[in-house]
Specification:
It is a single chain. It is built from 13 helices and 19 strands. By secondary structure, it is of the alpha+beta class. It is globular and about 60 Å long. The chain starts with a strand and ends with a helix. The protein binds flavin-adenine dinucleotide (FAD). Flavin-adenine dinucleotide binds next to helix 2, strand 13 and strand 17. The site of flavin-adenine dinucleotide has 42 residues, from helix 2, strand 13 and strand 17.
């Protein structure tokens, strides 16, 4: 059978890592794979998806011998770089409903709401300190084009008897965020923010405590499939009965998955601490805030008073080759800084100390997909989190555990399992060239709409071609 070749990440230099990782001096805690080893389940990737899969399998079948192979260190990928915004899938209920139907959509949305409660329990019990603050998730508009972006999700939730969101007035938003720029929106109360790298490293510790073996600095270079697949790293070979691919955007190296995945970059900046200034403008709590522009803007303040501003850049690479630009872009976060100063002019003199980027694994339906590789029923994958993973990966872990353990239950039967109903994307070079044209149009549309100006017909048409 043909070998499956992977394309491991380009590790970020320490100075290019996220503020979150640098502030806790995150490092590898386990040794690389050396020589040959065996296990029941091998997991490729030590981010939220890999860790939650390991933990859920251990919940059901504690005797399972699980080994995680992580290219860099656990949390070095998107899980330690993200915006730290915690919200449920109710925000995507319209997309879920279209893909999986009403009953599964509700089940999956409730499961992410339960996952948020599980995170709260981990935090309050002292099992995992992730600086979780459930002060709400605000979905807001700061220009006319953004007004009502939440309409489909808000109205569907109400129609289905779920009061997950509340409407916000201009005064509410000002009181909660200290900025008058956004003037309409909704809030999900049982949502908020975390320190994402603390969460990632805490999951690594929990997995080790449950007896999961982890080898960091162990990029998997290739997998020889078969009844007992062999995973090869530079230092050794791991032989397993089943394999879980939880390597996020880097899975786009597998041609079968590349057809359904596209990788875009998202960029984040963090300021120096400015707690007194934030007190003065009354931005005091741990809510996560999102501005509904096309290149979605997301922000929070940390407990220490750093301001975090993240933004989808739409940046892409030919053949989805994730190079060093996906760790840190040369633009030094200029777009994010401009947006931060638009929303908070008071921050003009506060230095930005960190900027970093990360790859986002996108699917046309904007929802993850779980399955096994077409010709390999013992090689499973979880991919396509589309920039929303903190409350979603615990649910992904349930789905993956059921698939790996061969259970026939609500998780293995749910509508996110199975790639056949997903949309195939165009091949290269059409994909890259098309994406560049569409990206430019989206950027132009976005920039005009922020200023309440209307883009021309061609720009609107091209921007509308985005999946
Ligand atoms: C900039 C940014 C902002 C985001 N903001 C938010 C947010 O505010 N809220 C939210 O909910 N979600 C957010 N997300 C999304 C969220 O971070 C992801 O959905 C989530 O972390 C996905 O977890 P994962 O385990 O699939 O991926 P990752 O954390 O990327 O883990 C995959 C791991 O696989 C490893 N790997 C890759 N190839 C190999 C190989 N060949 N061998 C071994 N290991 C390999 C990588 O090193 C990596 O550690 C954001 C993402 C980014 C990039």
């Amino acid at each position: 059978m043909r070998t499956i070749t992977l394309r491991p990440p380009v590790a970020a230099a320490r100075k290019d890592r996220s503020y979150w990782l640098q502030s806790i001096e995150a490092e590898a805690a386990t040794s690389p794979l050396q020589g040959s080893a065996e296990c029941d389940v091998a997991i490729v990737g030590g981010g939220y998806a890999g860790m939650w899969t390991a933990l859920r399998i251990k919940e059901h079948a504690p005797e399972t011998r699980i080994t995680v192979l992580e290219a860099d260190f656990c949390g070095s990928g998107a899980s330690g770089r993200n915006g730290g915004q915690v919200h449920s899938w109710f925000a995507e209920i319209d997309m879920l409903l279209a893909l999986v139907g009403e009953s599964d959509a509700l089940m999956l949305c409730e499961a992410t709401a339960d996952a948020i409660e599980e995170l709260r329990h981990l935090q309050t019990s002292g099992a995992l300190d992730m600086d979780l603050r459930l002060d709400g998730w605000l979905w807001t508009a700061s220009s006319t084009a953004q007004e009502g972006a939440w309409g489909a999700a808000y109205n569907l939730c109400r129609a289905l008897g779920k009061e997950r969101f509340r409407l916000l007035q201009r005064g509410d938003i000002l009181r909660r965020t200290g900025s008058g720029v956004s003037y309409a929106g909704i809030v999900e109360d049982r949502a908020g923010t975390v320190q994402p790298a603390k969460l990632a490293l805490g999951l690594r510790r929990l997995a080790l405590e449950k007896g999961v073996t982890i080898h960091e600095n162990s990029p998997v270079l290739e997998i020889a499939p078969g009844p007992r697949p062999h995973l090869r790293t530079a230092g050794g070979t791991l032989c397993a009965s089943k394999v879980v691919l939880a390597a996020n955007a880097w899975l786009s190296a597998i041609p079968e998955l590349h057809s359904y995945l596209y990788v875009v970059s998202s960029q984040v900046v963090a300021t120096a601490p400015a707690p007194e200034l934030l007190e003065r403008i009354r931005w005091t709590d741990g809510a996560s805030i999102c501005d509904a522009q096309h290149h979605v803007l997301y922000y929070q303040r940390t407990p220490g008073g750093e301001v975090i501003f993240g933004r989808g850049t739409g940046g892409i690479a030919f053949g989805d080759r994730i190079d060093g630009r996906f760790n840190r872009d040369s633009g030094k976060g200029a777009d994010n800084i401009r947006e931060m100063h638009r929303v908070y002019p008071e921050l003009k003199d506060v230095p930005v100390l960190y900027d970093w980027s990360g790859p986002i694994d996108c699917t046309a339906q904007h929802l993850p997909v779980f399955d096994h590789l077409r010709d390999h029923p013992n090689i499973f994958y979880a991919v396509g989190f589309n920039g929303t993973g903190i409350a979603q990966a615990p649910v992904a872990g349930r789905i993956m555990a059921s698939l790996v353990l061969g259970y026939d239950d609500v998780w293995s039967r749910c509508g996110l399992v199975g790639i056949n109903k997903r949309t195939r994307l165009p091949p290269e070079p059409l994909r890259y060239l098309g994406a560049r044209v569409v990206r430019r149009a989206i950027r132009r549309k976005n920039d005009l709409e922020i200023l309440n100006r209307k883009p021309g017909r061609l720009t609107r048409f091209l921007a509308g071609l985005a999946p």
